[in-house]
Amino acid sequence: MARSRGEKEDCYDKSTGLIKLLQVLSFLVVFVVGVVIGLATSAHINRHFDAQTEIYSFINHFSSSKETPHQQGEPSCTVAQSCERIDCLSMETFLEPNNLTHGMTDNELFWRASMVPAKKEYPYQRVPKVAFMFMTRGPLPLMPLWERFFQGHDKLFSVYVHVVPGYKLNASTTSPFYRRQIPSQPVSWGTITLIDAERRLLANALLDFSNECFVLLSESCIPVYNFPTVYKYLIGANYSFVESYDDPGRYGRGRYSRKMLPDIQLYQWRKGSQWFELSRTLAALIVSEVQYYTVFSKYCLPACYPDEHYMPTYFNMFHGSLNSNRTVTWVDWSLGGPHPATYGGDNITEDFIRSIRNNGALCQYNAEMTSICYLFARKFAPTALEPLLELASSVMEF
Prior knowledge:
Organism: Rosa chinensis (China rose)
Pfam family, one: Branch
Number of strands: 9
Helix content: 25-40%
Strand order of the largest sheet: 2-1-3-5
Structural class: alpha/beta
Order of helices and strands: HHHEHEHEEHEHHHEHEEEH
Number of helices: 11
Radius of gyration: 34 Å
Strand content: 5-15%
Number of domains: 2
Largest sheet: 4 strands, mixed
InterPro entries: BC10-like (IPR044174), Glyco_trans_14 (IPR003406)
CATH class of the largest domain: Alpha Beta
GO cellular component, one term: membrane
Protein name: Putative glycosyl transferase, family 14
């Protein structure tokens, strides 16, 4: 009986040991299977991200290959381009962007351009520049005259060109117009889209913190003085040059709509030339202003022309003390009609250009009177280019 009980105890011990051994083996099997599954999953994830990286690299390569000629080879910090080679947060890139191509919407662009530093001191040696902003439907036939005007003054100006979408400006690699097109939108004469284009030019130019003065020009504009004279005149001015006056006739007050009440009263309504020069302060106000732009977009419809009334009215209402109420761009309206006179090659004489430079009238500049009232003139046809180049050195002195 005792021996039988001992045999049973031996069998029990053997069974217990076998069970423990099976448990250990089961744990080892589960552990090994887990390791294998983990390694397989990790390899799959790595392959997935490698594939995504290859796709992203392909997109970047494709995007770069689709760049227009004026974008290629020029540093920029766009969404599709890595900042590994370019310090996108460097002060140089922030203060003076050298690539005008970007993917911002107008609202994003205006928001960014409206930022004004609270600290007045600049963290670098700032040399103020004049931004020359050209709004054109296509080519700039008078470009050679402007290139001659700009020659030798590279650090004192910048150029911005707004053309119809898809048009490529033909400029040589040595031209100040080379790669100076901004992202544009379609523009229709006599509509709010003209104001949109003006604000677009201002906003792009405001991204360069060295730009202090902003001049709007067209493809038919010419300079009538040399660059040093123009630069000194604009940089030294205490006021901006936006024509603003009260016209009681049908082409002035006659364009006012009572639907603009209560935002704009009739006595506040003003008219003026589209061709302006703004200080940096006023330029930032225009790209950030929403309320009165909205009123004009709703109620200043043909035959109310927003480009002749929006800035003159807005500055009259709120910033008259910063404005001279005159333009620095000469134009001949003596023929009547909706468009000024156009001058071709046969009209260009020395006496004619001198009459624009010194027309016998005086105007106020800062606190003094001066005979230099117009720095630019329009409208000039492409045929005027050659005679203007012949007179540039002797009459316009550049």
